[in-house]
Design brief:
By secondary structure, the protein is mostly helical. 58% of the residues lie in helices and 0% in strands. The longest helix is centred in the middle third of the chain and has 29 residues, at 46-74. The protein is elongated and about 90 Å long.
Length: 95
């Protein structure tokens, strides 16, 4: 049996995940690098704080998701179950 191709939805989710992660990294780098000279992190506006921590959560979530996917791919596939309609699933005829 050959390798199965991913569905369009799965590809779309991966592309959007990569886009969100790179946007979050961009926000983090911009916030940390482009502050005014002498401005400490505790003095930045509230909006900047919310964007920073949202971006950090997105990056950590995507890393966790990638690690979980790798862990799930390493697991053995589940044993196939019997399909409905086979003789074991038949209902006995009334007498």
């Amino acid at each position: 049996m050959g390798v199965s191709r991913p569905s369009v939805v799965e590809v779309w989710f991966r592309v959007s995940g990569v886009g969100s992660t790179t946007a979050a990294i961009n926000f983090i780098a911009t916030i940390l690098a482009m502050r005014a000279p002498g401005m400490a992190l505790h003095k930045v506006p509230f909006f900047v704080w919310t964007m920073l921590w949202t971006s950090v959560l997105i990056v950590f979530g995507s890393v966790r998701s990638g690690l979980r996917r790798r862990e799930r791919d390493d697991e053995e596939p589940p044993e196939p179950t019997e399909r409905p309609g086979q003789p074991d699933d038949a209902v006995p005829a009334p007498q």
